[in-house]
Sequence to fold (67 residues):
Amino acid sequence: MDTLIAMQDIRSGLASIADRAASGESFIVVRNSRPAFRIMPLDQPVPAPGIKTKLREVRERLADYTV
Fold:
């Protein structure tokens, strides 16, 4: 499962996020309360085009997200 991360967290912790991605962790970056893009390790398979996270799932994951 991808970890949700806010856009402002990238600005302050890019090195840490890059290290975590290199270790295999994937992130969905949230911008203006909406998923904007994914950060993932290079060796991880790319999701098939057209597959989107259900809005309900995103809202549930955002509800649990704390900075």
Q: What stands out?
A: The two ends are 18 Å apart (CA to CA). The chain is about 35% helix and 20% strand. The mean pLDDT is 81.
